[in-house]
Amino acid sequence: MFRLFSNSLISLFFFFFFIIILSWPTCIPARKTLGFALDNHVATVKSYNSTWYKSNIESFLNGSIGSQVIDISEIKKHLHRFGYFQLQNDTFTDNTLDARFESAVTLYQEKLGLPITGKLDFATVSQIFTPRCGMPDTTTIPIHTLHGTKHYVFFPGKPHWSRRMPMKLTYAFSQDYMIHNLTLSEIRVAFKRAFRRWASVIPVSFTETDDYSFADIKIGFYYGDHGDGEPFDGVLGILAHSFSPESGRFHLDAAETWAVDFRKEKSAVAIDLESVATHEIGHLLGLAHSPVTEAVMYPSLKPRDQKLDLTLDDIEGVQALYGSNPNFRFGSLLESDTSTNQAVSLRNIRSYNVWVTLFLKLVLILCLCM
Ligand SMILES: [Zn+2]
Ligand SMILES: [Zn+2]
């Protein structure tokens, strides 16, 4: 009798405990859909005419199928640039908002983890005008978990570096294509830290070499059209691009105000070099753009913002290509989410919560069976 009562009490305890855990959010709340205040955005995005943006935002938001929306062609060009419009020889002079445009917007929202409305809503327009990586989002293989959660993505064919493990890759800076608002020493430190983040989670090491022509990864800062069919566009807009394995080409837009310390660099359009370097190294290793907004491999970065720490999504993706660094422990995820020296952060712990929930479900079932 007592045993029965005791078992029921335990079951009841676990039942309520389980309910509480289920009501615990399974992931950190997504960031505000607006990356930063529109006025702030308009003031800083010099690559687009701010007056144009401000005067057209209302018409973008109110547009419906079949209507003519002034300068919607500019949005079409952007969607085409990143692979959402598969059109040949289109001059994008048509301002009609049609079904094809709506499906491109829907795909854009899906790929970038935005609310899927098929409309040019505020979150979508704001995202379109946020500075970003030049790699297209659509030349990727989407991967979904059993629960339909989107996560890391590879390039088609899953290319990765094929060397003997532990792998050693070298990188070098171009002497001809450099910037001068930062010293070479400052640039080298930023890149060293960026490479070290990835090296801490996979059995791959990165060493700087002076031999540019023989380096596996070649880094340079370029203006505009620089011969690879992917021209840069001046201040903001596209910040950098790199290529999938084993190309090793790593290009940054020399027109940006690159920064390694925002206390020294006061420009409103300053871009954090280390954050962009960390993102582009992900491409060099074989990761495409992730729809997880907190991930380093998410394609956009606002001026004066930093995104340094690898999230669980980034780590799981790169380890699926190269395996784990024997010294890496997932437990280190729990150590700190504040230090920028950590390779990883707690900003994306949803997978842990899923495992906790599954464990508790198991405990509950066992208790009910007792
Ligand atoms: Zn990218
Ligand atoms: Zn390039």
TrEMBL record:
Binding annotation for Zn(2+) 1: 226, 228, 241, 251
Binding site for Ca(2+) 1: 256
Entry keywords, A to Z: Calcium, Glycoprotein, Hydrolase, Metal-binding, Metalloprotease, Protease, Signal, Zinc, Zymogen
Cofactor note: Binds 2 Zn(2+) ions per subunit. Can bind about 5 Ca(2+) ions per subunit.
Named cofactor requirement(s): Zn(2+); Ca(2+)
Annotated residues for binding of Ca(2+) 3: 233-234, 253, 256
Database matches in CDD domains: ZnMc_MMP
Limits of the Peptidase metallopeptidase domain: 157-324
Residues that, per the record, bind Ca(2+) 2: 216
Top-level taxonomic group: Eukaryota
BP GO annotations: collagen catabolic process; extracellular matrix organization; proteolysis
GO terms assigned for molecular function: metalloendopeptidase activity; zinc ion binding
Alphabetized InterPro entries for the sequence: M10A_MMP, MetalloPept_cat_dom_sf, Pept_M10_metallopeptidase, Pept_M10A, Peptidase_Metallo, Peptidoglycan-bd-like, PGBD-like_sf
Family to which this protein belongs: Belongs to the peptidase M10A family. Matrix metalloproteinases (MMPs) subfamily.
The protein's name in its UniProt record: Peptidase metallopeptidase domain-containing protein
Lineage per the UniProt record: Eukaryota, Viridiplantae, Streptophyta, Embryophyta, Tracheophyta
